[in-house]
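RESIDUES AND SHAPES:
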Amino acid sequence: MPYFVTMVTAERRRVLSRIDAGVVTLSPIGRVVERCWLAIAEHLPGAGLGRFVVMPDHVHGVLALPRAGRSLSHVVRDFKAGVTREVRREGIDLEGNLWQRSFYDRIIRDPRAWWYVDRYIALNPAHWVD
């Protein structure tokens, strides 16, 4: 089942990327986020990844989970923990928690909804206002 997932940084701190004229430049933390997101498909057989973007204070992505397996909550929890662990392992300065509790999700029920979600994610950097 495909989900549109959004995860937000604690206190909406802008530590993941910078956006100039719609172009995303990842911070060191943002690069860890990207690596860990792409690794989900390696760690979870049958998972599929759709469009994904690392914004300054949040992450949007499409994640399709196999019917049998871990829940979305479990996958997101592991992702957030993995990012935090890798950031600390790399010695990147991180004050307090990286992530806000919980996450936002919406089931993508049909191709039209998928198209809107994909377009929203793709255009999100162009609509960013600093």
